[in-house]
Write a structure and sequence with these properties.
The chain is an all-alpha fold. The chain has helices at 2-17, 19-39, 51-81, 84-89, 95-125, 136-157, 161-178, 190-195, 200-213, 219-242. 76% of the residues lie in helices and 0% in strands. The two termini are 30 Å apart. The model has no long low-confidence stretch (mean pLDDT 85).
Length: 249
Amino acid sequence: MNAYTAVTRASYLAYLRDRTSVIFTFAFPLVFLIVFGMIFQGQAVDGGLSYINYIAPGVLSWGIGNAALFGVAFTLMHWRRDDLLRLIWRTPTPLPTVLGARYAVALGTGLVQAVLFTAVALAAFGLHLSGSWPLALPVLVFGITAFAALGLVVGTLANTPEAVAAIANCVMVPMAFLSGAFYPIDLMPGWLQGLSRALPLRYFDEGVTDAVGGRGGIAMPFLDCAALTGFTLVFALIAAKTFRWSNRN
């Protein structure tokens, strides 16, 4: 526990010192919110849901997932490239403790993102929170966990910062549109709607949207959490199978 606390504190301090990453993490989703909010203000999507209540959860889910993936992937890539993982392997501190500390950073960052983003959406664009909005909290936790696990896969495959950025962007940018986060999924062709069911962001987005907008009943966010748990297990298994202690392996 002492080792976990120390590593978590060090990880948070290292993250806060990287001001570019901090600004990008919190400002980037807000830029999308402002752009979409100004363009579609006052409009509604099919089913009567206001556009802000549709797009805000989508942008929030994408921004949080993006930050979790990039943060974990960059950290793992740097640790392996700089041979820090080999040093960790020779210490009494087990690797799960170190990775757990980085997960705590991703979780804390994502929850702060959610609070800041929601406050801006409420104040500036009239986001309406239904009485079921607390159900978004478990969805956020499971969503962050799934994308952090995906970050482990990307960080294991990539050997350079450029490779991390290329792989992560190839994953996250198409997913933003194919999952329904930025574009109503009902307007897509049937085969694309089917394909979107293989994307974790769809369940992350739908879980947050259902909770915030009171859509689909109380059970729906928990079904989305179950789907995100499945993605987490798959990504964790892939990361475990492909894990490397050093680029020299």
